[in-house]
Design a protein that fits this description.
Largest sheet: none
Shape: globular
Radius of gyration: 16 Å
């Protein structure tokens, strides 16, 4: 009998789901994202939206309580950090978001949006970049440990 337990959330699982989503729907670029009738799982999306869809894919079921949500939260944070550091080519220094008076989360999310919006960026490049970042995820098996390394 199959297990009813959902797979554990990991940063690699989040990023792999993000890459699969953007490969399926395509990369959207530009300022006018609102496309009534074409939103959700079928409209082309930004790298930021693809990451968000990966997060949703790895999220525990709402009926689950306790530790799986703590593990998920750490995987969510790690996946955003790994992906934005990968885009940057090295760890993003905290001085960047502090100078702009942004939260770390807001700065890193903005990096995803801007990277994907570069002229001539392709869906294939976006998916490959996300998959490469997924391969760099730290010891992806242990987000249950609160001291899970981020780099």
């Amino acid at each position: 009998m199959p297990s009813l337990k959902s797979p554990s959330a990991t940063s690699a699982r989040i990023l792999t789901a993000a890459a699969a989503h953007i490969e399926r729907v395509g990369l959207y670029q530009g300022d006018h994202l609102w496309q009534p009738g074409r939103m959700g799982g079928t409209a082309p999306c930004t790298v930021l939206h693809a990451w968000d869809r990966g997060v949703r894919a790895a999220r525990p079921r709402w009926s689950v309580r306790g530790e799986p949500w703590n593990i998920f939260q750490r995987a969510l944070t790690d996946s955003l950090t790994v992906l934005s550091d990968h885009i940057n080519g090295r760890p993003v220094p905290g001085v960047r978001w502090r100078k702009l008076r942004l939260t770390e989360d807001a700065y890193r999310r903005t990096m995803l949006w801007c990277w994907g919006d570069e002229p001539e960026r392709t869906t294939a490049e976006a998916a490959a970049m996300i998959r490469t970042a997924a391969a760099h995820c730290p010891s992806d098996g242990d987000h249950s440990n609160p001291s899970c390394p981020i780099t």
